[in-house]
């Protein structure tokens, strides 16, 4: 299993807005080969810190996803988000190989 975290920080007052965007996400990734699970995590002590958690069967399947047209389409939409403060946020990406369960 391969896990990817994409963590970003928004102003606390915009956290609910960002969360609502993810509630209506396209779900294109859900159909990707090897995709297993999506979770949106909010830090309890820092509500503006949000993490996208994705689980994949393998690193190779994740890499195939990020090279896909659907991935590019999703991330192009993010750049066109009307709130430029949110559109300009660059997440911190962390990738993990699961070594025990």
TrEMBL record:
- Name all ABM domain ranges: 2-90
Q: Which SUPFAM superfamilies match?
A: Dimeric alpha+beta barrel
Q: Keywords for this entry?
A: Monooxygenase, Oxidoreductase
Taxonomic path: Bacteria, Bacillati, Bacillota, Bacilli, Bacillales
Its Gene Ontology molecular function terms? monooxygenase activity
The answer to keyword Acetylation applying to this record is: no
Q: Tell me what this protein is called.
A: Antibiotic biosynthesis monooxygenase
InterPro entries recorded: ABM_dom (IPR007138), Dimeric_a/b-barrel (IPR011008), Heme-degrading_MO (IPR050404)
């Amino acid at each position: 299993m391969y896990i990817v975290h994409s963590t970003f920080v928004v102003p606390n007052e915009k956290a609910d807005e960002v969360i609502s965007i993810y509630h209506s996400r396209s779900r294109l990734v859900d159909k990707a080969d090897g995709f297993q699970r999506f979770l949106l995590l909010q830090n309890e002590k820092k509500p503006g810190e949000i993490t996208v958690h994705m689980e994949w069967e393998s690193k190779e399947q994740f890499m195939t996803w990020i090279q896909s047209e659907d991935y590019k389409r999703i991330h192009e939409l993010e750049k066109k988000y009307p709130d430029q403060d949110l559109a300009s946020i660059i997440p911190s990406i962390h990738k993990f190989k699961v070594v025990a369960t």
